[in-house]
Each structure stands twice: as C-alpha cells, then as structure tokens.
Amino acid sequence: MHKTRFLILGAGPAGLTFANRLLDAGITDFLVLEKETEAGGLCRDTIVDGAPLDVGGGHFLDVRNETVDDYLFRFMPREEWDLFERDSRIRFAGQEIFHPFEANIWQLPQDMQQAYLDSIAAAGCNTGEPMPEKFIDWITWKLGERIAADYMLPYNRKMFADDLDMLGTYWLDKLPNVSFEDTLRSCREKHAYGKQPGHAQFFYPKKYGYGELWRRMAARLGDRILYETPVESFDIRERTVRSGADVFCADCVVTTVPWTSVGELAGFSSETAAALPRLRHSSVEIRYAPDDLHTKAHWIYFPDDAIPYHRILVRSNFCAGSRGYWMETRSERVRYTNDNPHFMNDYAYPLNTIDKPGVMQNILRETHESGVYPLGRWGEHMHYNSDVTVDRAMRLAQELLR
Q1: Tell me, which fold does domain 2-87+205-401 have in CATH?
Q2: What are the domain boundaries of the chain?
Q3: What are phi and psi of 373, to 5 degrees?
Q4: Where would I find the beta strands (DSSP E) of 16-165?
Q5: H or E stretch including 373?
Q6: How many helices (H) and strands (E) does the chain have?
Q7: Mapped to the 3 state alphabet, what secondary structure does 215-275 carry?
C-alpha cells in the first residue's frame, strides 16, 4: 500500500501541469501514475526520418492565453519557439482553398460561389427557423444545404463517426453564424471576412517536436512519476487505485485518464456505473509519408470520402529541418498497405454524444463528493486543446490548494 496526499492518474498535459503546480506550492507528497514509458499523452513525439513527428496528431501551443504560455515558457523559454500565422486549407473541387470554407468560397469558380451564396442565404439560422435538435439537421440549419452536404457532413463523418446523429448539438454553439453579408463581401473583394478559427497564431518548438515541452515538465517531477503503471482498478469512494501488485491510496485523487480505459471501477451509484460505457471516443492512426507536397499550408482538410484520412499535417512547414507530412485517419477507415511509420492512438477524441452531458454530470457530482477530481480531455471527456487543459489544471490546483 502506497499512501500519499495527492494521487494523479495520467502524465499528459493535465496531470503534468497539476503536479508541477503542487511543486510550485511546496507540496512534494504526491505521485503520478502513467501507463506509457514516457510522459506527454497525446502530445508525445518521436524521431521519424531524422526529425520529430507528433505521434498523437497535430498539437500546437495557442498564443491567446498569456497566463498559460508564460507558465509553459518556464520549462521551454519563448526563444525556443517559432511563431506562425496559421495557414490551414481544404482540398476541395480539385484545388486548395483556405479554411474556414464559408469565408473562402471566393476562391472557387464563379458558378459554385453563387450556389453557395444562395444556400447560405436560405440557411435556417439566417431565415429565422427554429434550431433543430439532431446533428445533421443542425449543421444544415447553421451552414446551408450546400456547405453541409459538400464539406461539413462528409468531413465530420470521416473524423468522428459514420452515424453523425449520435452526436449532440450542445457543443456547436461556439460556431459563429455564417453571415450572408460577410460571405458576399468575401466574394466581391476576394478576401476572407468573418470570425477566424482557433490557432490563428500558434507556437511550435524550433528544434524539437511538441513532446519536448512535456518531457521537461516530467523531468522536474523526478521519481514522483511511476511509468508503466496502468490504472487497473479504481475505487472512487476509498480513493484507491490498483496497478499490478501495487495499491495506491490518497487523500485526493486527480484523474486525467479515460473512464472507459479503467479495468474495474467501484464506488459509483448503480445508475452512473451503468451509464459509464455510454461514453464514446474515436481512435486515430497517424501515418508518415516522406513526400514533398509543394504547399505552404500547415495542415489540410480532406472532405472527400474516397480518401481515407481526414487531414494531413505538413510538418516541413512548421518543424524545422524536417520533410514530408503525416496523415490522420480514424481507425475504422484505415486501409493502407504500405509499411510507413505509423502510430495508433486508441483514445484520440472524446465524442460529444447526445447523452454525454447527463453521464458526465453524474460522474462529476459523485467524484467530487468523494475527493476525486476529473481533469482534462479524458477526465472531463471534453475535446480540449493542450492550452485549455493546462489552464484548467492550473485553476484546479489553485482551487484545491486554497
């Protein structure tokens, strides 16, 4: 039996940030359990073809939260990062247009521009129709029939699931309305108007992959991280975790691992225990290709269903000294025959299914009552980027240490 004040499950960005904030506060009585041989979670990287490759997909440090950036710069100083203006594109109709789609239809042939303009004008959100409840209907209501059918729906099927109506619409409110006026202005002036997507500017290490940041954060923790220590059973009431022959008990547990990855869960009510398997996620393969694409884009989206991957990351355009790109493909769509370096991420994206909010509400209520705190992309089952995860970890540490 290993007893500790804080037990942190998972050494990804959430767990590493929380643990380092404990050290900042002078607290050393904690342990971090990590099932892999190194820290970083989905933000890990490895050397492929002489340069870093992010094995968990495309991860970048957003510039918008200065508090988060300043904290992370303590481990990897600002001078070790390059700053980029985001160049993301969509491979569509035999050409590359800039992202987001609706702001850049001016790059398409004239007849296609008019068809999309007519469709946007007739979109339900622009004509005052009530907001639908099903995902597919909602996307059409928000963007118009043509953009939904030609881009958004096929892309989301490739990325998340074949049955999109299993997804809820509660997480889509952050998408801005597609303004007919802004789109028309874009077509007339041949310039994108409207709200820009996230990561409009981003940092990426000059000499390393993104995983270097998290390796440095892990190094500070020393032997307080126990690697190759998966969470095999977890009793939230007793705040005990078993891994192999070892049992860990803590006054407070912060969990950042996927709920459905734990072999045995105890302490939940029968209702919550029965609902836990309804938490869904997607798995994604990352596969390297050494070819030069002759594009300035950092990443490119592919809505074409005939192509298995949904996006590529052109690492030679943001990772110094590298070449080639990597493809991101949902596991059910992988059908490659080459032996290029590839990495499967069993837990890539939490899925925002219709009943997820109710399931997570019960989980959060019952865990908090027991001194257990879910955190980050997998603890909270939310599609957080790494900077958002770090922010939430810093806030949770401040709250618990108060």
Answers
A1: FAD/NAD(P)-binding domain (3.50.50)
A2: 2-87+205-401, 100-189
A3: -125, 105
A4: 30-33, 45-48, 51-54, 61-62, 81-85, 88-92, 95-98
A5: strand 372-374
A6: 13, 20
A7: HHHHHHHHHHEECCCCCCEEECCCCEEEECCEEEEEEEEEECCCHHHCCEEECCCHHHHHH
Query: How far, CA to CA in Å, does 106 sit from each of 103, 113, 152, 189?
Result: 8, 6, 18, 9
How big is the chain, counted in residues? 402
Whether cis (ω within 30° of 0) applies to the bond prior to 341 is no
What the block records as the tokens of 183 is 């789109």
Q: Which own/partner pairs from 238-247 qualify as long-range (CB within 8 Å, at least 24 positions apart)?
A: 238/266, 238/267, 239/7, 239/370, 239/371, 239/372, 241/7, 241/9, 241/33, 243/33, 246/2, 247/1, 247/2
Contact (CB, 8 A) for 308 and 345: no
User: Quick one: which of 111, 168, 97 has its CA closest to 139?
Assistant: 168
The closest alpha carbon to 248, from 56, 79, 7, belongs to 7
DSSP assignment string, 270-312: HHHHHHGGG--EEEEEEEEE--------SEEE---TTSS-SEE
Instruction: Assign 349 to helix, strand or coil.
Output: strand
pLDDT on residue 288:
97
- The whole-number mean pLDDT for each consecutive block of 10 residues of the chain, a chain of 402 residues, reads 96 98 98 98 96 93 95 98 96 92 92 93 91 92 93 96 94 73 89 75 96 98 98 98 97 98 96 96 97 94 96 95 96 94 97 96 97 98 96 98 91
